[in-house]
Amino acid sequence: MEKNKNGLSSKITGIKDTVLEKIQGLDITPESLLLTAIKAPGIRIARAEFLKKELMLFYPEKTVLMAIEMNPAQAGIDRAKIDSIADSVIKYETNKVSAISFVAGLPGGAAMAATIPADVAQYFGFMIRAMQKLAYLYGFEEFEFNDSSISDDTMNEMLLFMGTMYGVQGAAIGVKSLAQATAARVAKTLSQKALTKGAIYPIVKKVATQLGIKMTKQIFAKSVSKTVPLLGGAVSGGLTYVTFRNCMYKLKGSFEALPIADPDFYRQEQSAETIVDEANQE
């Protein structure tokens, strides 16, 4: 019995070493992982198409088109409805990536280490999908990337969002600053400048460093789980479900608190503009 126990322990240690060796061969930086993840098919979400599909079920076309042209809150979309749609998005994307992770973790064992790079890219690809959907629901502009590249501004934006998901200190402050610039209707060129050269840039660099450490730890834990003999699928799928879901709800919680996602913010702004206009006319 003791011999079997020692044999199993030795086997698991060997699997961990194999996984560690495989991970060390990866270029694990947040930027590199995001660039790899966007190459997977189906990652890009067209903002207008997504908002139209989700909002047309509940609102007239005029309201939906206004939400696309500006943002849902500015179009008067009820906050509770946005939260409800966001919950559905998180549930859908979490279930999908967890199911794929479960299948990818079968039957477990050291041989599964070979699938780690693809599994990592797939996991973060789903994160980017869900990230876009939540960002569009809560008022942010369309991400600027294609199948092979990400603009500097979008990369910085995504790093702040990812940092928020992983609880990196300072990330939420960066997201708030970005949202304030957008809510104040800052010209796009000025908003981009703030992302790359202004007050937000130092925050992004600090967030990226801490994010890389947190992501590496998660990748190792998840990769080891999928190689556990016989239990690989269940453990990997379960861990994916919990971690992915928690990350998405952290991001949603951060977005919910932003003025850009609050219809009352725009109503108050419009009322203030009306008062100023009337005063100028007198």
Structure characterization notes:
With 282 residues, this protein is mainly α. It has helices at 2-24, 30-37, 47-55, 61-69, 79-104, 116-137, 152-165, 171-183, 188-196, 200-226, 232-256, 263-281. Helix 7 (152-165) packs across helix 10 (200-226). Mean pLDDT is 74; it is low at 1-25, 105-116, 186-190, 229-235 and 271-282.
Continuous helix count: 12
- Structural category is mainly alpha
Q: What is the mean pLDDT? A: 74
Task: Detail the poorly predicted runs.
Answer: 1-25, 105-116, 186-190, 229-235, 271-282
**Largest sheet properties:** none
Give the amount of beta strand, in percent.
Answer: under 5%
Radius of gyration: 22 Å
- H/E series: HHHHHHHHHHHH
Tell me, briefly, the overall form. Answer: globular
Query: Helical residue percent?
Result: over 70%
Tell me the number of strands.
0
Q: How far from one another are the termini?
A: 93 Å
Describe the structure using short key phrases.
72% helix, single chain, mainly alpha, 0% strand, 12 helices, 282 residues
Reconstruct the topology from this structure:
Blueprint: H1 2-24, H2 30-37, H3 47-55, H4 61-69, H5 79-104, H6 116-137, H7 152-165, H8 171-183, H9 188-196, H10 200-226, H11 232-256, H12 263-281
Q: Can you describe this structure in just a few lines?
A:
By secondary structure, the protein is an all-alpha fold.
